[in-house]
Amino acid sequence: MNRLRLVVPALVLATLGSACSSGSSGGQAKVNTAPSTTPPISSTATAPPDEASAKAEITANWTKFYAYKTKPAVAASLLEDGDQMSGALAFARQEQAQTHIKQNVKVKVITFTDATHANVTYALLNGKTALLPAASGVSVLVNGKWLVSKTSFCTLVQLGANGKTVPGC
Predict the structure, then answer these.
(1) Distance of alpha carbon 25 from alpha carbon 169, whole angstroms
(2) Buried b (16+ CB within 10 A) or exposed e, 108-123
(3) In this structure, what are the phi and psi dihedrals at residue 35, rounded to the nearest 5 degrees?
(4) I need a labelling partner for 55 at 20 to 30 A (CA). Which of 41, 90, 107, 123 fits?
């Protein structure tokens, strides 16, 4: 229970630390217990036409979004409906400031469910220490750009909210 109390604020901070602006819907984020050792999946019939480029963009955008030093406006631009998520992003930023976690992520596996959605397995880190070694979320293609889904972001933020309502989620 004590570890969960530490991880939940870290999740919120990780999610918010990279943003302070807005988001919409997407997929659900899930927290897994076992780390993934599976390499990224190769092309499938449901993948976008240039799967390698899509995976590279998803990896870059998730890494940038969850990096604690990312400017709020940049983070908002990497979040689905980011322009509508200022309350949730501010909440996450506040949690990060209180816990001093230097969150980041390492994307491990990307699996396309169709040409505009991908399941993302990643490790949520504090520096080099894994807080969640095998978390999962969804990336969505919006206006030609792969974004962190609002649902993935909100799931992490709500975990750290300790029952409080998170604006925008």
Answers:
(1) 9
(2) bbbbbeeeebbbbbbb
(3) -70, 150
(4) 90
pLDDT higher than 60, residue 16: no
Q: How far apart are CA 54 and CA 108, in angstroms?
A: 14
Q: How far apart are CA 124 and CA 133, in angstroms?
A: 6
Instruction: Check: CB of residue 122 under 8 Å from CB of residue 103.
Output: no
71: alpha, beta or left? (left if phi > 0; alpha if psi -120 to 50): beta
Count of Cβ atoms closer than 10 Å to residue 144 Cβ: 6
Q: What residues does each domain of the chain span?
A: 2-160
pLDDT tens, residue by residue, 47-80: 899 999 999 999 999 999 999 999 999 999 999 9
Residues 31-50, mean pLDDT to the nearest whole number: 55
Q: Find the mean pLDDT for residues 94-111.
A: 90
Q: How far apart are CA 50 and CA 30, in angstroms?
A: 27
Domain 2-160 fold: Nuclear Transport Factor 2; Chain: A, (3.10.450)
